[in-house]
Write a structure and sequence with these properties.
Largest sheet: none
Helix content: 55-70%
Oligomer: single chain
Order of helices and strands: HHHH
Number of strands: 0
Shape: elongated
Structural class: mainly alpha
Low-confidence stretches: none
Strand content: under 5%
Mean pLDDT: 92
Radius of gyration: 24 Å
Number of helices: 4
């Protein structure tokens, strides 16, 4: 038997959660049900912040990887710190 739970959440939190659930191929209600079942089973709540790159950072790193593969935007190898400083001074 299903029942309805009404909660108040910040709009941004809800939208971000829906997007993440969609990325995982799941409805947000399925995620919430799984969390409630775990809460009942374990009688505890845990919080964690798993670091994750933003899409903007992934895009930047993708361009950097492309540059590396194509040998673009790369500095030369320096034999000394002085040579590196000379190179930086002319940029």
């Amino acid at each position: 038997m299903k029942t309805m739970i009404n909660i108040k959440a910040d709009k941004e939190v809800k939208e971000n959660a829906q997007e993440l659930a969609r990325d995982l191929g799941l409805p947000l209600s399925g995620i919430i049900n799984a969390l409630l079942k775990e809460f009942v089973r374990n009688r505890s709540v845990s919080f964690s912040a798993v670091p994750r790159m933003t899409r903007a950072l992934e895009n930047v790193l993708g361009r950097v990887e492309d540059d590396i593969k194509k040998g673009r935007n790369m500095s030369p190898v320096f034999s000394s710190a002085e040579k590196a400083n000379e190179y930086l001074d002319i940029l």
